[in-house]
């Protein structure tokens, strides 16, 4: 008697995998809580789940996938290494694959750094590169202090957490980061950035400020997890001048902003500065784990083994990374990100005019954030450039911004997922919807993303309780 098998419905497979994940994995899991999908196939912008649904992925592996999922040039580079019989993993030995990656990486560096640079291959994650950068500058300067900024996110290891915005450390001096919409000085615009720069200057030059001698200053050209907040170019130049005049190494964390994401190959190029150290990860591995720091040769004073790690020689990641870097450079995808990102920002800003729950729309290139606020707050949203004061700044008093609404942001994310759009949240209060589509995004795909987001925003706004609702008043 022949045995017959009852086909398993895709939904059953999907639900079973999610159920086992919830039972087996730790309470620390994050994306899985808000994105209950089981990816089984992916290409470019699109993910297909085990339940048969298709999604437009604007998370892109938290910014890792510059070329989207399974780009042909990445797959070919990986396949070539596998077919060659080359070792898949070595320590920090020289290999042809590594040499090709380093050569391509140096070809993309900002002018003024490539000719006098060293590269250190770190552990596989961006946080490992942050730790390496901190060790480097502390060794080179002999100082233990660190200058870092409010709202920063640099990773999850001890040193990276200390440099980030929510982890106190006596060696870290926390400085104000310019934030037009919620300016800490209540002005926004150029005036807010100028006051932030003056604060830094006065703090560094005041012998009674209590600032530990800084080994370096670490900053993000665009704060990602902090809410997609671009640093003003003039302020970036001030930070470069302040640090250079005081012989304090400047560390640019380009883990999320690098490889064309913001409209230039490296985000520091918007302001024209050359940092002393650049931290790189995410997209430089072409979707595989890879992290490096590139720095001025004068800082190269650590001893052999001063910063090591087992997985520094991932040949597949280096091959995928070299292919990605070359493709972005040769196809001018940074310029494409600048053009398409500007169009997406313009449409989102027009959407904001019709939705009082949208407090601010901001970003650079294809790194976009939409900050959601309480639509029933007494304060009216202040959007720099539209509701600003005559001098370009916003009115005083925290720039008049209404309270952030993280519950509404979570509702928008859920509504996006129902419509087949994957987005993530960030910001100080987790109220910023973040869009990080691949740099290969087409015009038609961009329109589809924005259409789905607009529908999701309207649905979440309609469902949001009004404060005068009897159920809310209790």
TrEMBL record:
Pfam families: Aminotran_3 (PF00202). Its EC number is 2.6.1.76. Its cofactor is pyridoxal 5'-phosphate. InterPro entries: Aminotrans_3 (IPR005814), Aminotrans_3_PPA_site (IPR049704), Dat (IPR004637), PyrdxlP-dep_Trfase (IPR015424), PyrdxlP-dep_Trfase_major (IPR015421), PyrdxlP-dep_Trfase_small (IPR015422). Gene3D superfamilies: Aspartate Aminotransferase, domain 1, Type I PLP-dependent aspartate aminotransferase-like (Major domain). Keywords: Aminotransferase, Pyridoxal phosphate, Transferase. It is an enzyme of class 2 (transferase). Coiled coil: none annotated. Residues 376-405 are annotated as: Disordered. CDD domains: OAT_like (cd00610). Residues 390-402 have a biased composition (Low complexity). Pathway: Amine and polyamine biosynthesis; ectoine biosynthesis; L-ectoine from L-aspartate 4-semialdehyde: step 1/3. Belongs to the class-III pyridoxal-phosphate-dependent aminotransferase family. PANTHER family: DIAMINOBUTYRATE--2-OXOGLUTARATE AMINOTRANSFERASE. NCBIfam families: dat. This is Diaminobutyrate--2-oxoglutarate transaminase. It comes from Streptomyces lichenis. The lineage of its organism: Bacteria, Bacillati, Actinomycetota, Actinomycetes, Kitasatosporales.
